[in-house]
Write a structure and sequence with these properties.
By secondary structure, this protein is of the alpha+beta class. The chain is built from 6 helices and 16 strands. Bound molecules: (1E)-4-oxobut-1-ene-1,2,4-tricarboxylic acid.
Length: 358
């Protein structure tokens, strides 16, 4: 495990994000040493991550660590880490549903889970939240196949589908789905819903912040004062959601919502939290879909609810379909389809440890 020998790494796309995937046994067991190593591998802190493999964007500065399961009802353990781009910070406080899509294929590639001929169904223990997700991976002839006809908005071309299912993710991070006990609160005079159905999210009406909710991400990022206003609301929402001081955290996320304009259920633009997502975080989309079925939420009032269980959440790159099995506000299960792809398998070489004099 010496830095100069390189560290075995799978570089994977999961949904609309990218992550370096490691086996836990290839990384230091000490958390501080591990995080220091990951910062040096990804090239943080640096806006361009020029001296590492990170992409200079939070969506391409992610890590998944895989290990044999630590609970009987799972096949593999998955710890997600967000490596901040511009700060020397690594956090396990948020889960990631996009990278979850890469975990099944990677676990099979690394021999942690045996593949069946055809499809392999595996259960993934998400260490960040303690939830278990079921993934179905295409494995014709007992090998992972990345080729197929599934298309997700935000990714060019088609690929093999990875289906993901959860039977319990309400309150995954905050402990309860509505951490303040009510569907709507007011922060600084603005109506908001504080919700966690997989990802802690603050739901706001885009119009209440003076935007339409149809803007491009770069337009929102360039708006004078908008990011600061969103951050001020987020800092107040964190303690109300039981998350404490969230100044240095990547949660809660902030969703600016509007009525749908492309035939979907609701329109979203996400601050995650300091950049605006080019599409949408998947678990964040599940939290929005949950908001759509709970009377009294900011989302409920704007949503065009579907007849069935398929919620089409509009985002800057198109739509994501979230399937919610529910009776009114009672949600039994959630699912979504993603694709994933192995981009590189090899050794990664971290930047040297900084000398004390630097
Ligand atoms: O919400 C982005 C992503 C994510 C997280 C973020 C995610 C999710 O798109 O499940 O996938 O909000 O940081 O990878």
């Amino acid at each position: 495990m010496s830095d100069s020998a390189g560290i075995p790494c799978l570089w994977m796309r999961g949904g609309t994000s990218k992550a370096a995937v490691f086996l836990a046994t290839d990384l230091p067991s000490d958390e501080t040493a591990r995080n220091d190593l990951l910062l040096r591998l990804m090239g943080s802190p640096d806006l361009r991550q020029i001296d590492g493999i990170g992409g200079g964007d939070p969506l391409c500065s992610k890590v998944a660590i895989l290990a044999p399961p630590t609970r009987d009802d799972a096949d593999v353990d998955y710890l997600f880490l967000q490596v901040f781009v511009d700060q020397p910070r690594v956090t396990a406080a948020q889960p990631c549903g996009n990278i979850l899509a890469a975990v099944g294929p990677a676990a099979i590639e690394r021999g942690l889970v045996a593949a069946q001929d055809g499809q392999t169904v595996l259960r993934i223990h998400m260490r960040n939240t303690g939830e278990v997700a079921q993934a179905t991976v295409q494995t014709p002839g007992g090998q992972v196949s990345y080729c197929g006809s599934a298309r997700i908005d935000g990714v060019p071309r088609t690929h093999a589908p990875v289906q993901l299912l959860f039977d319990k993710i309400a309150g995954a991070v905050c402990g309860t789905m509505l951490p303040t006990g009510q569907p709507s609160d007011r922060i600084a005079g603005i109506a908001c819903t504080l919700i966690d159905h997989g990802m802690p999210v603050v739901l706001l009406r885009a119009a209440d912040l003076g935007v339409s909710g149809q803007e491009r991400p770069d337009t929102l990022e360039a708006m004078d004062g908008l990011g600061a206003r969103v951050e001020a609301l987020r800092l107040q929402a964190g303690p109300l959601m039981g998350l404490g001081d969230v100044k240095d955290q990547s949660i809660p996320k902030i969703a600016l919502l509007a009525a749908p304009t492309h035939g979907g259920t609701i329109a979203t633009r996400f601050f995650i939290p300091h950049r605006v997502h080019m599409s949408i975080g998947v678990l964040a989309a599940v939290s929005v879909a949950a908001g759509c079925v709970i009377p009294g939420t900011v989302a409920h009032a704007l949503a065009e609810r579907p007849e069935g269980n398929c919620f089409q959440i509009e985002h800057p790159a198109g739509k994501i379909e979230i399937v919610l099995e529910h009776d009114g506000p009672k949600i039994r299960a959630a699912g979504f389809l993603r694709t994933a792809r192995k981009l590189m398998d090899g050794l990664v070489f971290p930047a040297p440890v900084r000398p004390d004099t630097e």
